[in-house]
Q: What sequence folds into this?
C-alpha cells in the first residue's frame, strides 16, 4: 500500500512569494495534520484537518492556511514567505482524529526561502 | 502540554540493548506516551505507545514507571538502521481535548549506533 505522499519534494522561493504544498494521505485515512520542522528541532504542529474541517491550529501566523478536499488530500498554503519559513514541511495522516491513533508521516517537502 | 526531558544524544554498539529514557513529570493521568523516531532525511515514524502497562511490539518495548512520570524505550538489539532521533511524546488523553490528533515533539534523543 502507498504511504503518505507529498509534493513537491523540494522547493525554492523568494521572500514575499506564496507557496502551496500538497499531501495525499494513506487510503482510508480521514485525518491529515501538517508540521513544520526547522533544522535541528523537532516537528512543530501547524494544522489538523478531519473530514474536511479544521480540528486544530498550532501557534502559527495567519499567513499559514490549509484545507482538506473530499478525497481527504490536503494543501498547505503559506503567503508572504519569510526567510524563517525555510523548513521541512511534514504531512501526517491517521484513521481518525484521536491522538492515540498512530500517525503516518510523509517524507516531507523541503522549502528554502531566499 | 506535558513537557519532556530526554538526553540530547546516546550511543550504542550494534546488537547491544539500548535504553532511551524520558521524563514527563507533568503528564496528565489520561495521557498516552507515544514514541516516534526520525531516520535521516525521512519523516518521523511510529515506534510504540502505552498508557500504564509495559508494552511490547516487533520494534521495541516500552517500560512505564508506576507513577507514569517517566518511561523508557528499549531496543533489544540495536542495529545500524536504528540510528535516528527518538521522540517521547505524551498527550492525547480524553481529558485533553485540545491535543487530540496532534503530536507535540521536543528535541528528542539522537541515537548513534556503532558497528
A:
Amino acid at each position: 500500500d502507498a504511504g503518505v505522499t507529498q509534493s513537491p519534494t523540494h522547493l525554492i522561493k523568494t521572500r514575499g512569494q506564496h507557496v502551496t504544498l500538497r499531501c495525499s494521505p494513506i487510503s482510508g485515512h480521514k485525518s491529515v495534520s501538517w508540521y513544520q520542522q526547522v533544522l535541528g528541532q523537532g516537528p512543530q504542529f501547524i494544522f489538523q484537518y478531519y473530514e474536511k474541517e479544521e480540528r486544530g491550529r498550532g501557534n502559527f501566523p495567519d499567513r499559514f492556511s490549509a484545507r482538506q478536499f473530499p478525497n481527504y488530500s490536503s494543501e498547505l498554503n503559506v503567503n508572504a514567505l519569510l526567510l524563517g519559513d525555510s523548513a521541512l514541511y511534514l504531512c501526517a495522516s491517521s484513521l481518525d482524529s484521536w491522538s492515540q491513533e498512530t500517525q503516518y508521516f510523509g517524507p516531507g517537502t523541503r522549502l528554502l526561502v531566499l | 502540554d506535558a513537557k519532556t526531558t530526554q538526553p540530547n544524544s546516546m550511543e550504542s554498539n550494534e546488537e547491544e540493548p539500548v535504553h532511551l529514557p524520558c521524563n514527563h513529570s507533568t503528564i496528565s493521568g489520561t495521557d498516552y506516551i507515544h514514541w516516534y523516531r526520525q531516520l535521516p532525511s525521512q519523516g518521523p515514524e511510529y515506534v510504540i505507545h502505552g498508557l500504564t502497562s509495559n508494552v511490547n511490539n516487533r520494534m521495541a518495548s516500552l517500560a512505564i514507571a508506576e507513577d507514569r512520570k517517566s518511561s523508557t524505550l528499549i531496543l533489544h538489539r540495536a542495529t545500524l538502521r536504528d540510528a535516528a532521533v527518538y521522540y517521547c511524546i505524551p498527550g492525547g488523553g480524553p481529558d485533553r481535548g485540545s491535543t487530540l490528533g496532534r503530536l507535540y515533539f521536543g528535541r528528542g534523543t539522537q541515537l548513534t549506533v556503532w558497528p
Notes: The mean pLDDT of chain B is 89. DSSP finds no helices and nine strands in chain B. The interface with chain A takes residues 32, 34, 36, 41-46, 49, 85, 87, 91-92, 98-108 of chain B (CB under 8 Å).
